Each structure stands twice: as C-alpha cells, then as structure tokens.
Amino acid sequence: MLLAAGLGWYAGRHEPLDDAAREPASRPAAASARPGSPTAQPSPTPARPPALAPLPGGRVLASPDPQHFLVLRYRETDPPETGRLEIESVYTLRRDPQRFLRAPNKRAPHGHYLDDLGAERAAELERAQARLQREAASGALDPEADARLADAARRVLALGDATALEALLTPEHPPSVRRTIAAVLVEAGFRSAAPVLAESLDSQVAADRERAAALLQRLAGRPIPDRESFEHWWVRLHPAEREARVELPAEEPPR
Fold this sequence. Notes:
- The chain is α+β, with helices and mostly antiparallel strands.
- A five-stranded antiparallel beta sheet has the order 1-2-3-4-5.
- Helices cover 40% and strands 13% of the residues.
- It has ten helices and five strands; from the N terminus they run ααβββββαααααααα.
- The protein has a domain of 123 residues.
- Strand 1 and strand 2 form a beta hairpin.
C-alpha cells in the first residue's frame, strides 16, 4: 500500500510532454553557415535526477531510473531532522505476461509487476545456505565432493553471507570440509580462516599442501611453504589484522 500510494503521486506529477516540450533542445547549424565559421555545440544532456514521492510514515519513494523504485526511511538511530536516510526495500519493474496464468485474481492485465528484490535475494540466499549444509553433511568421498562444496560455499559468499561458512570451520566438522571452506574464505581475503587452511600444510596429499601454500602466499604477500613459516607470519599480525578482510593479488597463471 505504501508503494502504491507513492506510485500514484509519482504518476500524477509526470504529465505528458506537449508539442513544444517535444522539440529537440538544439537544432543543426543552418546550411548557409560560412565554411570555417564556428558552430555552436549542443550542451550535454544533464543526468536525470531521481524522482521522489512522499509516502506515509515519513518514508520516501525514490526512482533512480524507470525500472527501479526504492523505499527510503529515516535511520532509526538518528533523529529525523538529520535527514539521514536508509533503504528499506527495493523494487524492480518487470514485464511478465506469462505470470499467474492459472491465478486470474493475481494476474495483472498489463503484464507488469513490481518485484521485491530484497525478498528475492533472501530466498536465493536461503536456498544457497541449504545447499551448502547438504554438501557439508553429505560425507561424499567421490572426487567431485570438494568441488561441489567449494562451489556451494562461493555461492553463499557471493550472496553476502560469510558467517555460514565460518560456522563450518569449527573442529566438530570433518577435516575435508574445514579445509575446503577455509580455502574459499582465504581466496576471498578472509584472514581469519588462515589458521585452518594452514593445517593443510601438514597434509599427506601434495595437492592439498600446494594449494594451501599458494593461497597463504597470496594472503601474506610472502612464501608460506610450511607451518613454521606460517606461525612466524601469523604471530606478528595485530589481532585486528587477523580478523580483517583483504584484497588478494590476482593469481598468476600457470607457466
């Protein structure tokens, strides 16, 4: 209802252009202009400012472009007179004539719908988290198990959740799960996962040792071939630095 009220106001404030307003801002130079004479250049079209509309409850509807609508509200931690706003929800306008084919009471005759991007993102994250938990609990021993778990972890991280991955680093989880999750976090720049990944430096599997050493070297900016070199680097970091997320340099292509 809030969004509908704002859209009604927004639509009422935007009248169709009359013929004069439809005229271009500048016309081509006259054909009789003398050769070599300076020609006035049209001024660049200014960027379209966001359209704003008031909503009940002190909220504001903003439209940065014709496809997106933002519901803004004053930050709860600040008094309204500060004018500091935060985004409450974001909607996008989509044309989908095939939606609700069997639900006429929900179907819009014009085929356009305002979709809540926040709700979509939350549902997508929930599905990704469920997949991550399934892969972590599967105990699969096939060669692709680690790759599936890493892919699920990267998806959760891409959707904005690192805590679900960090929860899988605790000792009660299998070493293979902890190793894979730690590698995903370290490659994303999370230093806090480095000690778990460093355990792979003692692995009997050469590929695990090499992968851990390569990731830790990118994270530390120095060679980390074994646990001793890792501990030497780690103890020199300030506690705040250990929890920081850093941007890793690009991985060098194999020669």
